[in-house]
Write a structure and sequence with these properties.
With 127 residues, the protein is mainly β. The chain has no helices and eleven strands.
Length: 127
């Protein structure tokens, strides 16, 4: 059973930066698109960013475009989310997720497209 473990969350002032990591178990990490979602208190979980198997294509939510950057290291079975110019509205629990489909596929930005989830890491941005 594949497991995803996020780390790197914390408390940061507005304008600061954090880098989240998501380490995956298993040998098939490189075969799947990976994504980050987030959920703020009282709100639905929303798409943040996604990356294809090789990293050749990336997709971002409009709210984070130009500030957040997703990357992956297939040798380390890890996907990252670099978050810059953080705003209080970025406060949320951030989740790493693996696409339910294997292989060369287009990025899916919907939650239903992902079937393996991490436990989440809290990011709090103070004003």
């Amino acid at each position: 059973q594949v497991q995803l473990v996020e780390s790197g969350g914390g408390l940061v002032q507005a304008g600061g930066s954090l880098r989240l990591s998501c380490a995956a178990s298993g040998r098939t990490f490189r075969e799947y698109c990976m994504a980050w979602f987030r959920q703020a208190p009282g709100k639905e979980r929303e798409f943040v960013a996604a990356i294809t198997r090789t990293g050749s294509d990336k997709r971002y939510a409009d709210s984070v475009k130009g500030r957040f950057f997703i990357s992956r290291d297939n040798a380390e079975n890890t996907v990252y989310l670099q978050m810059n110019s953080l705003k209080p509205e970025d406060t949320a629990v951030y989740y790493c997720a693996r696409d339910r489909r294997m292989g060369p596929i287009a990025i899916d930005t919907s939650m239903t497209g992902y079937d393996v989830w991490g436990q989440g890491t809290q990011v709090t941005v103070s004003s």
